[in-house]
Amino acid sequence: MSLTKIHFEVLDKAAVDRARGLSDRFVAQFNPTDYTLVKGAQLAEIGIPGVDSPVLQFVRGQDERLTLELLFDTTADGMGEKATDVRTLTRQVYQLVKIQPATHAPPRFRLTWGKGLSFTAIAEQVQQRFTLFSPSGIPLRATVTLSLREYKTLEQQLAELKLQSPDHTKVRAVRRGETLATIAAREYDDPGAWRAIADRNPGVDPRRPRPGTVLEIPPLAPGNAP
To answer: What are residue 110's DSSP bridge partners?
Structure first.
């Protein structure tokens, strides 16, 4: 059975720049021995005088974080005059945290390892530690530590959370080209019910709501339900 290596796929295709060392797809030289996933929640403390501890209030979730170390080594090419700088291999990973000229930001990418790991991310930190050198000072071995933060669009998060119930207010993001009437048609099967959405979301232009705006979609009163 062949060894499955960790793959990187750059999702922001405009950021791909082979001259700078960033390809659209590449693989790690060696797989990590372990990796760490961390998911947290932001909590607020509500202080009440006279009680033993504060009441905790959930505020919001936090993005999932992935940390792993990758080893790179070029000693197979020799350690003398023909030694190969290991940075020729680490360069692509290092580019994941650097601002790319075409997008003015580090690229979004997907890291996959067989069937066990698929993580869409933006690199928060990439650390290179060089541990072996040729007699002339060329680095030949490096450990690269990646600290990645999961990337999800607002629509992806709302779809996964499914913050909705037939008789409770739910939330959704405005898509490009939508109006409150078209949203009412999707949510209530009645485009004429757009005013209920407008009343709950003051300041939103019913005809030209800004894409990405998060709307509260209230339940219709029994007499107004389609």
So the answer is: 9, 120
The CATH number assigned to the domain holding 192 equals: 3.10.350.10
Q: Which residues contact 131 (CB under 8 A, 6 or more apart)?
A: 141, 142, 143
> Phi and psi for 162 in degrees, rounded to 5?
50, 55
Q: Are 155 and 173 in contact (CB under 8 A)?
A: yes
**Residue 162 and residue 88 in one domain:** no
Predicted structure pTM score: 0.72
| Highest mean pLDDT of the ranges 42-56, 70-84, 167-181 | 70-84
In sequence order, the β-bridge partners of residue 100 are 105
Say how far apart CA 200 and CA 169 lie, in whole Å: 10
pLDDT recorded at residue 1 = 56
What is the identity of the amino acid at 116? G
